[in-house]
Amino acid sequence: MKLIQKSLLLTLCLTSSLVFADVAVIVNTANDSQISDDDIQRMFLGKNKSFSNGESVVAINLDSGNEQRGEFEEKVLGKSSSQVKAYWSKLIFSGKAKPLEEVASDSEVISLISSTPNAIGYIDASKVDSSVKVVKTF
Amino acid sequence: MKKHLISIALVSALTSASLHAEIHLSGFGSVVGGMTTSSDETLSGYDDNMDFKQGSLFAIQASSDLGEGLGVTVQLEAKGKDDWEPDFKWAYVSYDATDSLRLLAGRQIIPFYMYSDYLDVSYAYAWIAPPEGVYDVPFDTFDGLGLVYTTSFGSVDASFHGVYGRNTDELEINLLGVDYQVSPELNGVMGLSASFTYDWLTLRAGYFTADVVMPITDLDNLADGWEQAGFNDIAANTKIDEDKGTFVEVGFQINYESIIVVGEYTQLEVDNSPLAVEDSYYIMAGYQFDQVLVHLTYGADEGKTDNYTSDVPYGVDPTLDYLKQATELTLANDIQDNDYIIAGVRYDFHDSAALKFEYTAFTDDHYNNSDAGLFRVAIVTVF
Questions:
Q1: How far is A4 from chain B (nearest CA, A)?
Q2: InterPro entries, alphabetically (chain B) (predicted)?
Q3: CATH number, domain at A27?
Q4: Contact B109 A89 (CB under 8 A)
Q5: Residue B164 to chain A, least CA–CA distance (Å)
Q6: Other residues' Cβ atoms within 10 Å of the Cβ of residue B342
Q7: B219 φ, ψ (degrees, to nearest 5)
Q8: Is the residue at A10 inside a domain?
Q9: Which chain A residue has the Cα nearest residue B23?
Q10: Is position A58 within any domain?
Q11: pLDDT of B315-367, one tens digit each?
Q12: Dihedral of alpha carbons B230, B232, B237, B238, sign
């Protein structure tokens, strides 16, 4: 099974290095909330501040300029990186919201999410492991 | 005493690094170059000498989350036109009572306009700066209390922002056609703004009032003259002393796929004063081509004064004639009627910076010698 996955991955990499990898939105394995696409969008725009289980949302972003982040913003938020940045600067400089927590790599996202019950993040779909739960892949 | 404080600080720093909340630093800036298109034209502080100071600004914001809903935010901004003298725009303690209710205490921006909250964060909008004809209340901060409530009604996101406080900052303002350095008092600044967003449409409205005290020597001398002549009502009208100021705003914003349309209308009035009732509006339309936004704005600004000396006839008494003439001149100086077109381009050439070009064609329908064309270029950033 693993071998098949690996060879699939390899083929994918070889045939289409121009196509970005899919983005997986992930939460803590203990998080049993219902999360729709709209919820994900609103959580990463600071509009939705709690999960359906009542826990408050800690959304984790990748650093600015990260390819995966650009992919996520375009596919899931439906905006360009500049538009997302402009949106957040409105909230941050008016004191209406705090910026999302930012980390440098997929592995940091995984370790933060596996240790934080109310965190949500996104990573390269191929980096997902069993320590986190995938909400949806885009 | 000082030594004592230092040792306390040192001890606490050594023993409890974890007690100190993390400080988040961020900032924004604009470097704007501009010049008018001809030597006899001036507009927004520009003339025909290329200038890089007038519209340029930088700000730095520090915020810290103290835990349990408490936070501190301080924003220090310096503008070229103030000779880069820094000024606190925001300096407040916030308390998040719930996920949807935030209370603010301290120095804050008055949410007069659609773009008030991030007025100088040029990166956040299309223009180099929002249209001056509408964005022209001479002060934008206050010291006091604020309340921000956000909620949703079905798929409509709503936000309400209430304020109460006072502003006693010294101002340099152009009133009645003359530049004055004044120390006004804006007492009991109070008001509410509300905004509703449904998918691609945002509607907004604001209503604010304050008791305005604005000592201006020329007006006060004139008022004394009227008082000595026995015209107490006219004297009271001439002074700006505890007069009720009212500001009303309505606006909308459409963000539909690549199309953006924004419009705002404002009315500013100070009752019982020689100041004009000012009606202003603009409408902007833009289209986003990938990294380039092209936009066009039309706006107009109208100021009307009421000649409250009209009951006093000329030719009765030389002193009265003088007072009446001087008052009428003052009132006439505050009349304005102008419109403008702004054509601009924003180019998102970098993740945290954008390049903007703008041309403003200003037409003065009241004074026919002050038409002007202004070309500006800016690099704007957030960091």
A1: 38
A2: Gram_neg_porin_domain, Porin_dom_sf
A3: 3.40.190.10
A4: no
A5: 17
A6: 24
A7: -70, -40
A8: no
A9: A98
A10: yes
A11: 888 999 999 999 998 888 888 899 999 999 999 999 899 999 999 999 988 87
A12: positive
pLDDT at B11 over 50: no
Tell me which residue range forms the domain holding A99: 20-137
Phi/psi region, residue B272 (left: phi>0; alpha: psi -120 to 50; beta: rest), is left
Looking at the predicted structure, is the pLDDT value of residue B93 above 90?
yes
Return the CATH architecture of domain B28-382.
Beta Barrel (2.40)
* Token representation of residue B343: 């054509």
Q: Render pLDDT for B211-245 as a digit per residue (tens, 0 to 9).
A: 999 998 889 999 999 999 999 999 999 999 999 99
pLDDT of residue B277: 94
- Residue A11: inside a domain, yes or no? no
The chain B residue lying nearest A89, using CA atoms, is B124
- Please give, rounded to a whole number of angstroms, the shortest distance from the CA of A91 to a CA of chain B: 8
* ipTM higher than threshold 0.95: no
**Residue among A69, A84, A93, A118 with most chain B CBs within 10 A, to mutate:** A93
Q: What is the pLDDT of residue B15?
A: 43
Which secondary structure element, helix H or strand E, spans residue B71, and what is its range? Answer: strand B70-79
Interface test with A, best of B30, B57, B65, B73 (most A CBs within 10 A): B73
